[in-house]
């Protein structure tokens, strides 16, 4: 009987409640709320993970595509002139084919790239507009260009980029693309390593370069480019008006100058600085300018600078067309005139073919050069153009 009474008193009558019952109900409710919040937190966590992992990877693929577009466009622009020639009409087909070949040597998202939208035409340096040859004739501010647009999208290069965690929020693939335009034009700035400390006067330049032609090209003499002589004790260059433009070198550093140009030009530090520009760096190329050099920058025009010539000209000869050809096609500075020892602003950067260098104890220190279109200088910038535009140092 006690057992029955004990059993009855342990279960409250219907309609009654106890403190422990309310606590159990509240506990069940809290567990349900925590479960919902946990689910929401997991979704949010996956979303952030998707952003951190998938978006980061998309940027990696985007950079891979941009690098491929850059390389393809630059290679195309480098081949706008027919191979093996110093000048001719632009070869649009050759440029586009060269761009595609370069593109297909690149990888994005773990696979080789196969296709891109490639066209060639003219880039306007004032309006930053791209004009194809079929739509308009080139104007005074138009320069030849190659445009490459590459993407991983539906039907192109194995399709869009597949995501990882973003699939959990309904995003399984994302298209990615990049565009680059490379132009064949004289740049506004030469970055370190792309410029030799040699100056050409406007007078001599006009003797050897025909800017009225399309494309602009060297003037010819006996079916060969006109040769110029720059320096001291040079053979005749034809026009007497140019005879005083004999300076050969320019200082490209910000060293302090004293009041005696001859002392400055022939002191040990200047001679070493000039010589270092023609030494080989670890990559095997000429060192060139140590700092960026831009149009309108004033540069110090050196005089005859015999000691510099004695030190530097043998190095130039060794890398010229008469030597190992490593500096045969070089970007140099155009100055209005090179008379005297003074600061002069840079008018333009131009391409020369260094044929030979002459130096002798009698004081004959000079270069034999031709104007050219074959400098393929990727150490350049400027034209106030979009960052996707690359330049090569062709004289224009």
Automatic annotation (TrEMBL):
<feature type="region of interest" description="Disordered">
    <location>
        <begin position="1"/>
        <end position="24"/>
    </location>
</feature>
<keyword id="KW-0472">Membrane</keyword>
<protein>
    <recommendedName>
        <fullName>Flp pilus-assembly TadG-like N-terminal domain-containing protein</fullName>
    </recommendedName>
</protein>
<dbReference type="InterPro" id="IPR018705">
    <property type="entry name" value="DUF2134_membrane"/>
</dbReference>
<dbReference type="Pfam" id="PF13400">
    <property type="entry name" value="Tad"/>
</dbReference>
<feature type="domain" description="DUF2134">
    <location>
        <begin position="93"/>
        <end position="182"/>
    </location>
</feature>
<dbReference type="Pfam" id="PF09977">
    <property type="entry name" value="Tad_C"/>
</dbReference>
<feature type="domain" description="Putative Flp pilus-assembly TadG-like N-terminal">
    <location>
        <begin position="32"/>
        <end position="78"/>
    </location>
</feature>
<feature type="compositionally biased region" description="Low complexity">
    <location>
        <begin position="1"/>
        <end position="20"/>
    </location>
</feature>
<feature type="transmembrane region" description="Helical">
    <location>
        <begin position="32"/>
        <end position="60"/>
    </location>
</feature>
<keyword id="KW-0812">Transmembrane</keyword>
<dbReference type="InterPro" id="IPR028087">
    <property type="entry name" value="Tad_N"/>
</dbReference>
<keyword id="KW-1133">Transmembrane helix</keyword>
């Amino acid at each position: 009987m006690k057992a029955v009474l004990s059993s009855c008193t342990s279960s409250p009558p219907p309609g009654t409640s106890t403190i422990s019952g309310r606590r159990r109900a509240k506990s069940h409710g809290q567990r349900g709320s925590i479960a919902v919040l946990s689910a929401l937190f997991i979704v949010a966590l996956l979303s952030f993970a998707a952003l951190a992992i998938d978006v980061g990877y998309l940027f990696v693929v985007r950079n891979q595509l941009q690098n491929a577009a850059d390389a393809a466009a630059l290679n195309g622009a480098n081949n706008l002139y027919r191979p093996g020639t110093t000048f001719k009409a632009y070869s649009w087909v050759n440029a586009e084919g060269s761009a595609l070949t370069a593109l297909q040597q690149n990888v994005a998202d773990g696979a080789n790239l196969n296709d891109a939208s490639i066209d060639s035409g003219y880039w306007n340096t004032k309006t930053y507009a791209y004009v194809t040859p079929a739509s308009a004739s080139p104007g005074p501010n138009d320069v030849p260009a190659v445009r490459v647009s590459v993407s991983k999208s539906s039907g192109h290069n194995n399709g869009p980029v597949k995501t990882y965690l973003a699939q959990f929020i309904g995003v399984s693939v994302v298209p990615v693309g990049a565009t680059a335009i490379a132009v064949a034009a004289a740049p506004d700035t030469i970055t370190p390593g792309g410029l030799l400390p040699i100056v050409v006067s406007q007078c001599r330049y006009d003797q050897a370069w025909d800017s009225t032609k399309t494309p602009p090209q060297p003037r010819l003499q006996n079916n060969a480019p006109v040769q110029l002589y720059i320096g001291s004790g040079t053979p005749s260059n034809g026009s007497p008006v140019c005879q005083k433009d004999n300076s050969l070198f320019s200082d490209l550093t910000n060293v302090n100058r004293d009041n005696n140009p001859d002392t400055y030009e022939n002191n040990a530090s200047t001679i070493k600085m000039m010589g270092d520009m023609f030494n080989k760096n670890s990559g095997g190329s000429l060192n060139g300018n140590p700092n960026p050099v831009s149009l309108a920058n004033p540069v110090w025009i050196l005089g005859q600078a015999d000691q510099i010539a004695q030190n530097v000209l043998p190095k130039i000869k060794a890398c010229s067309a008469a030597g190992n050809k490593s500096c045969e096609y070089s970007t140099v500075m155009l100055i209005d005139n090179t008379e005297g020892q003074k600061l002069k602003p840079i008018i333009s950067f131009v391409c020369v073919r260094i044929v030979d260098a002459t130096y002798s104890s009698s004081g004959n220190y000079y270069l034999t050069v031709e104007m050219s279109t074959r400098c393929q200088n990727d150490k350049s910038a400027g034209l106030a153009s979009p960052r996707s535009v690359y330049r090569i140092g062709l004289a224009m």
